[in-house]
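Record 1 of the preview.
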Amino acid sequence: MPKNYNMKEIILELLAGKELSKKELLEKIRKESIRSTSDKTLNESLMMLLKERKIYITNYDFSIYDGVKRIQSIKPEGIVFGLMKTDFVEIETLIKLLESDDVEVVRNASSKLKQNFRNKIDDLTSRDSFVVVEDLDTLFNKTIFYIYSQTEDQKRILINKFAWSLSNEEGAVNLFEDILNYMEAQS
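->
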């Protein structure tokens, strides 16, 4: 059994409700853990969680450079991680946040939704059931535009369907494929 076999669970708990840089994660784990935690162990756990699509990279924390004006290298300590939201209600909430007046809230919600969108595209292409014919950001933006250009009742229905399609619920991938085929037919 690895030295810190429950490291993944600790990381997921720390990321619940917030985003943290690798540096912040390591500091919190070392502070709260009885065992010493190596950078290597944290890296391994982070990479497993990324591969399993339970977390994703959300941003980069430039404050780790501590005032350096000319940055010439990328420090992994600045990579910021967040939990991948795949629950229907969480995704529906993210879609509704796109209507916020706060630009930063919209930017964060859009980023998280686009990551889920890309993951679903990966699922489809790995099944060889879908071939992407246009830029993923463009396809995502067209889908959101289409949803928000509908009447209120239709918009509510489409938000629910789109949220379900991006979730990890039963039948979500098939619904997602249907939505993409419809959007491509609209072009």
